[in-house]
## 1
Amino acid sequence: MNAAQIHVEVAPELALFVPHARRSGATALAVDGVSTLGHVVESLGVPLTEVGTLLVDGRAVAVSHVPADGEAVAVRPVERPQRVPGAPLRFLLDVHLGTLARRLRLLGVDTAYESTDIGDPALAARSAAERRVMLSRDRGLLRRRELWAGAFVYSTSPDEQLRDVLARFAPELRPWTRCTACNGMLREATKDEVADQLEHGTRRSYDVFAQCSACGRAYWKGAHHEQLEAIVERALSEFAGDR
């Protein structure tokens, strides 16, 4: 007896997750009549965090749908901007996304970051406990059921990573309000309050300071400010108008 088959078409935006043979048009796939469509899609390599609508013979179905012989399945990407209901929008990044974490914090986006590899179970548990969207390039991590929410980071370029996250989630941008080191909130500070962190030349040349209310780190418009300002201006010019 021939095994039951469905025909699956994966959207071009998700093609990088599947083998080359499945990247163009609908292809046949054997099903067992027991596994859910969500399981089938994941078995092809597509994290469910990246899936928006699942269509079976043209109608939307849940990931719990059990595909039957002869069905035509279309896998569509998430719609942008993606809304994450149930909690304020905030993120958790794994050890490989440190630059992206600092840039999101620079823009005032609530971003937790693990600077050491604490392992997938601990990351997923923190995502759930703090209701943070897990950002990662690790597909295995994004498949963990205990995640609050997650998203695959498609690029290895920090510039493109930032654009992708801002375009996908449309977070509120409040530049210069968070500590890029620890994610704490910044407050205005006097020179005397941060004097122990300043070199002699800095004390002589600068008068305007901020300090992290959590870790105490001091900030001023130093040598790298123009580079940071450029990142902020690009983000605001491209994304702030849509919020």
Note: The chain has a mean pLDDT of 95.
## 2
Amino acid sequence: MADKRAARRNLRRLERVKTWQLLILFVLVCFVAATFLRINNVGMIQRRSAVATADKSGNETQIFNRLQDLQRYSTTHMNASSGVIYLQHQYERDSQAAIQRASAASSENARVHAQAEAVCHPQYSGWSMAYIQCFVNELSKYPTSDKLKDPELPNTELYRHEYTSPLWTPDFAGWSIVLAVVILVVIVLRLISLVILHLLLRYKYRAA
């Protein structure tokens, strides 16, 4: 009988808080968590847009600072993964500079070649070994007499950035999710306890 009274007492305690009340609280906490997750994502989008603006401006210091801001934010907030970001404008600027350097070097080499030919051509007819040796000797007199080179375009991977958010972070969104999980666990345990107590009262203690 004492066990039966204890079971009834525990059942009444559990029934004081209704399941529908816990469900409403769970839905509210989930809504709050979703709101904070959305705020985190908006913060990431703002910082990613700042990176794009800095990329257009061409200020390398500003680009570096904005990338640092985005990295710090994405790695310390849930739902704030940046996705793949390409510094397209910076790549185009660096590629243009590389092409211009190659063009300048090619023009200089062409000028040096013309000067070497002007010296050697009157001395030798055609491309004989003597003419080639003379040409090489003349080229060696100029520090810019390297062979022509193709533009060395920058590696595209150096302009690709991606930052991933952790699965959980100790911010408002993270703690809201923890609270929602706790409430859900309480609901499940409460339902299981109610079922067990009802079964005990119906079968075990009735038989006793």
Note: The mean pLDDT is 80.
